[in-house]
Structures are given as C-alpha cells and as structure tokens.
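Progress against Task 2.4 (sequence-to-structure conversion) is shown through the following example record, which the project officer requested during the mid-term review.
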Amino acid sequence: MTAAHVITANDLKDGLVVYQAADNGWVASVQAAEVLEEEVLLDAALVRAKLAEDTDIVVGVYAIEVEVGADDIRPIRYRERLRAFGPSIHPEFSRSPDASASGSEGAR
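Structure tokens generated for the chain above:
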C-alpha cells in the first residue's frame, strides 16, 4: 500500500461524520483518527469498523486515503475534505481541522 488511510462513517445518533480512533472509538476530527499505513492493519480496522456498523453505532463504513503531514492529516479527495472540514463557501460554516467529537465527551 502506498498511501495512508483512515476509516470513516456516519454516527447513527446524529448523522455526523466520524473517524475510527486507535481505541476503536469514533471521533469527529480526522486529526484524531487512527492512521493505517499497512494493508493488513487497514483490513483489520475495517473488520472492527464493520462490527460497529453491525451493532448500530455507525453506518456507511469505508476507508479514505489521507496525506500525513508533520502536524496534520488531510484527506486526499475533495469530497472527503468537505466531509472532514465542511463546505468551502464561507469560513463561518466550516469545521475546524482540530474539531473534537460533538458534545463534551470527546471520543465516541
């Protein structure tokens, strides 16, 4: 595998975009997602994510390619950048790159 990946889905409680964390929880920030750089790790993470889907925690599980910089994680495809950071039409409507999960609990 040449690119890094993260697992994404939508939270069934509120419909928001979430990312799988290393502890198998779900977080709203792509910055807090588990980055998977090996095929075998990606396959195992997808199995864990499908289990969360089967138990009605999330829906629409899939992997996305990301670029890992010195201090951030950026989805490669424009569609995924929109899901991660919000619309590009006005900064007021954007999600900040360091947004934590919705609510005060942080991780899901």
